[in-house]
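QA checklist item 7 of 12: single-chain prediction sanity check.
[x] sequence parsed
[x] length recorded as 287
[x] structure emitted
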Amino acid sequence: MDSSKFRISRLFLYFLLVSVFLFVSGNVGRYLIETHDIERKVAMLLQGGIFTGLTLIVLYILKRKSPESFKSIGLKGVNSSSKMAIGIALPFILLGVGILTAYLFGGIENLSMNLTTSAVISVLINTITAFIYEAFPEEVFIRGLIFEELQKKFRFFTSLILQPLIFICVPITVMAMESIFFDKPFAITIDYFILLFAFGIALQLYRAYTGSLWMNIIFHLVYLEVARYISLGGLYESGVALLEFDETFEGFMSLYLSFLFIVILSVVVLSVLILNDKRKIRRNRSL
């Protein structure tokens, strides 16, 4: 099978693998928590170990078949070191501006930092867990293998739209499998759909601008930790938040900081940067 040509079977295989891997790893952890009373953090680390371990096996097989596979999906190489630096700095700049404007505009009050040892350790542990259970395997499959396959058939913009739709189908498939095998309720909301779609667009633009899938992984981690330990104000993990505040209404920071600033403004800024680069290229060609 020619790996340079688009294959719907290959695209479906990647989708099936990431869905099954997520289903298996997630339910193994849940089983251990519910039946063996294992601590949640330990179970989540185990989930991540399974998901990332299975992903590494797939990468090993692909590497054996195609030595250039790591470069083609963005695990090796960057467009330029300056673009990578801008990519890394962008979410942190948006985070700072988002918190500052939320406070200045009265969206939050009684603002204070919580950099206690226990809070910092909790964030670090969760970052490791998020890397092996969410950011690394999801980016390898969705923004790496699946997007690369789409690019063989479609233009960038079309692939950019199709990728987050496939991204959304992964948790839907997992929920459907859990409903079938474990009789668990199947539920997906429109706000969850919108978030995943916009998040998928932002992630792909980070890779397009920097040329590196590692930038996707970094942004994925920044978003998760901001959402869990800043925007939610300690709701994700009882009593643990890097930023403490009072909101004008419940969920303000999730909407304003996590969604509007971290996700939507990333899409806006990166779109401008990418379009500007394309204009420069066309201008240079015309000279």
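[x] summary fact logged: The first strand starts at residue 108 and ends at 113.
[ ] second reviewer sign-off
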